[in-house]
Target: Diaminopimelate decarboxylase
Amino acid sequence: MYLHGTSKINANGHLEIGGKDVTDLAKEFGTPLYIVDEALVRQRASEYVEAFKASGLKFQVAYASKAFSVMAMCAIAEQEGLSLDVVSDGELFTALQAGFPVERIHFHGNNKTPDEINMALDAGIGCFVVDNFDELALLNALAGDKGKKVNILLRITPGVEAHTHDYISTGQQDSKFGFDLGNGAAKQAIEEALKLDNLVILGVHSHIGSQIFEVEGFRMAVDKVAQFAVSIREELNLTFKVINLGGGFGIRYVEGDTPLPVSEYVGAITDAIKTNFANADFPLPEIWVEPGRSMVGDAGTTLYTVGTSKNIPGVRKYLAVDGGMTDNPRPALYQSRYEAILANRANESAEETVSIAGKCCESGDMLIWDLELPKAESGDLLAVFCTGAYNYAMASNYNRIRRPAVVFVKDGEADLVVKRESLDNIVCNDVIPARLQKSPLAK
Ligand SMILES: Cc1ncc(COP(=O)(O)O)c(C=O)c1O
Ligand SMILES: N[C@H](CCC[C@H](N)C(=O)O)C(=O)O
Model:
């Protein structure tokens, strides 16, 4: 059993995280419950910051809030000195409501709406990461309407294919994101932006994909971006102040996953920058990164209550829990794999192989196939590890199932940071039009 961060098995044979027995958390907050090990989140944040400090380069570590955007997480990012990457008005609003410093917010997205852009302009955020030609024109016009000049990075696709799932690989040419380096669109975008009065080009951005275990892709991306920086300086007399290398640093979900320590990813990037610019007669660019998954992923655990089971002799045994694809769609979307234990019987040996099913009306609603467990009974607690990133963030209300609560645990304290949705939350935006109210079905 691999235990992350402060997780351990206590004298009662129960899983404990942040000094809290999870059986107590289940009693206090109910299940399903997302539990976040705050100390581990802070440790990851400081690993990034310290690795950059050691490089001697100027930097920003922007937490990619899409991985887990809630106000309490923005507060932690702020305290740890991170910047923040947002991709929608909702993520921006979350950051602003949490009081996150606007100058450290970067706005991403391949289809920012005029309303979203105006909201970010009014807030005065630090930087827009511009994704395409339409956005260049729109942003310039909207900034002009407000008499503002805005900092931009241009997102480029460097032509690097990260070895990861197709849906989470973004640096290749055939991608919906960014200006292509290979076909000249990236240079054309810089030329275009230089003509636009209200945009200030800070530099470029590249993100090659997610859940990446090697440094090779990052090195290749740095090489390509650095060559581009040098050629743009020569040809257009523009010096990039910032190079943003995105996120994508992998984490250990299951045995066999081999992420590198944060310091190695950062070291590979900063070394490659130094090598590429060794002969440059201009200041080294500031390096920004945008880790999402690796900031919060392994700090999250989802706690479920076991309900029904179905044994099909000679085929398999299904064990159903009180959540599923609504709180974790990743197995259904990406065939993602997770490890789990019976949290209230964590010292007991495995006796059977079961597959963990969710409670949605969907055959694909499976969380884990072929998991070795003690003989589980209804009422036991199942803890699924490494659910901190892209779980709460990607949760849905399919089947009108309510999103779970989120608690942060640290030093024996548990703080509720997101309330469990209520049944009232489920219908609060529903409207029965007057003409339907006449129907006998709708009283
Ligand atoms: C532009 C950009 N930056 C950062 C991230 C964060 O990636 P990860 O969570 O793999 O670190 C993503 C993907 O989610 C992204 O698209
Ligand atoms: N935005 C990221 C991928 C996010 C993947 C995430 N949703 C997951 O669950 O793994 C990217 O384009 O590289």
About this structure: The first strand starts at residue 8 and ends at 9. The two ends are 54 Å apart (CA to CA). The first helix runs from residue 22 to 29. The domain at 108-291 is CATH 3.20.20.10 (TIM Barrel).
